Amino acid sequence: MSRIRWQLPCLWLLLSACGSSLVLAQDVRYELGHRVREFELAWDRQPSLDERLKTTPLLKQAVTAFFSMRMTEAARLLDTGTFQLEGRGEPSEALRWTRSLAVTLDRRLLDPGVDPLGFAVRTLYEVPAVAMPLAEVEALVAAREGGQEPLAGCESQKQPLTAVPLAGELRLPADAEGDYWFVGRIASGPEASTTAQRIGLAHDLAARLARLNAFVDALPARGRSLEQETVVHLTRLLSSLAQGKTPETDYPAARLLTEAEALVAASEPYYNAQRAGQFWMAVPTERGTQYCRWMVPPEATGGSPRPLVVALHGAGGSENMFFDAYGHGAIVEQCARRGWYLVAPRSAGMGLSPAPLIVAALAERFAIDPQRVFLVGHSMGAAQASISACQATGTYAAVAALGGGGTITKDAQLADLPFFVGIGTEDFAYSRAKQLFAGLQQAGARKAELHEYPQVEHLAIVQVALPDVFALFDRVAAE
């Protein structure tokens, strides 16, 4: 039996279902994602497996609350689990109260010479029988995540927290430009809760966005290039950030603005094997524009063909799921360590994944080894991976389906395809995964493997199984 690496199950795939029951409205997905990350960090810091597993009942209740659309209750349960993992015992009333609050931002992309950065402290969930203690709010802008030193020319602001909601704003240095971190700290005596949220600062923002929008409006409706489609995609994203809309994750907005402008000015293809980093791209294909998040490791800029991992997210997720969630983007670290490409397509629902089309398009630009393309999917993505393995025969060197089932056609040519089926014994999709494995056997997939993980449920399976999945990928890549 495979050794289990215990990590926190990430709940982000459910966040797109959030409704208006939270006071935070459009900020709910971001704020709940923040609570999940806090739980993940506490889980990783807790060395005792027994202590980690004590939070399992709370986690199951949180999952039920998510599916029942009781989002405030889910947030409270996650915070309670964090308290347990931190080994604090019963948290003080002051700590419970500070954790029940959330700090939201007016916008995440702004012109520092024109706009102040507005923020507000609001109630995320009610804490019964806790009176509002004496407290204060400190807000600052730091140059890096986790930083506590204010950006030069932008002093931190402190004010008493005498009522909730409470609004405030920070005046930003007019010469600041780039991606920074807003840090909000709510303190009551020795107890404090902190949030860090990325913001982008850009000079002449309104004019720059206007030029991008004018360029987009002038583009032809059809036949657009990868760069042109991506300009359209980034312009919409940047405009929404400047208008105050809160996305599901932290985007490097200032960098993406500069990138969009470079795409407009480029006389040659911008995206190529010599440009390392992470990119949010819109890829034109015969089935329309496909959105994805794409990573080019520094090792890939040498020109020699390298393996590619395609990651298909679960229902309700997006291209950001595998990069930012599923254990703090554990798959990113796995690929970066090996110097492999990574792409996560956005999926609109069940059915055939656009992955084969995206792989074909990317292979025209990047040095992808066509013999070492690997596919991994979770939940809905597991079903899509199964379909893609049957219909895109010869595309993948190995496939992993985690936390889900899928249909295998009896005439599928899968005899020599390594196929990893990973499922937790507590997963509600357990029977579907077993059926998937049975279908693989009936189709003659002699290299299919079934990995069962004791006490693991649906949302944990990606983090738990990834080391075993990449062990398989390594063996196949070495052949």
Structural key phrases:
479 residues, alpha/beta, 8-stranded mixed beta sheet, 5-stranded mixed beta sheet, 35% helix, disordered N terminus
Give a structural overview.
The protein is α/β, with parallel strands linked by helices. The protein is 35% helix and 23% strand. It has helices at residues 28-45, 49-53, 56-67, 71-85, 93-99, 205-218, 226-242, 253-265, 321-324, 326-338, 355-363, 380-391, 430-442, 461-478; strands at residues 101-105, 109-110, 117-123, 136-142, 157-160, 166-170, 178-188, 191-201, 277-285, 288-296, 306-312, 341-345, 368-378, 398-402, 419-424, 448-453. The strands form three sheets. It has an eight-stranded mixed beta sheet with strand order 9-10-12-11-13-14-15-16, with helices on both faces. The protein has a five-stranded mixed beta sheet with strand order 2-8-7-4-5. A hairpin with a 2-residue loop joins strand 7 (178-188) and strand 8. Helix 3 packs antiparallel against helix 4 (71-85), helix 6 crosses helix 8 and helix 10 runs parallel beside helix 14 (461-478).
Summarize the structure.
The chain is 35% helix and 23% strand. With 479 residues, it is α/β, with parallel strands linked by helices. The N terminus is likely disordered.
Poorly predicted regions: 1-25
The biggest sheet, with number of strands, parallel, antiparallel or mixed sense and barrel status, is: 8 strands, mixed
**CA gyration radius, whole angstroms:** 23 Å
- Counting DSSP E segments of at least 2 residues, the number of strands comes to 16
| Element string (H = helix, E = strand) | HHHHHEEEEEEEEHHHEEEHHEHEHEEHEH
The SS-based structural class is alpha/beta
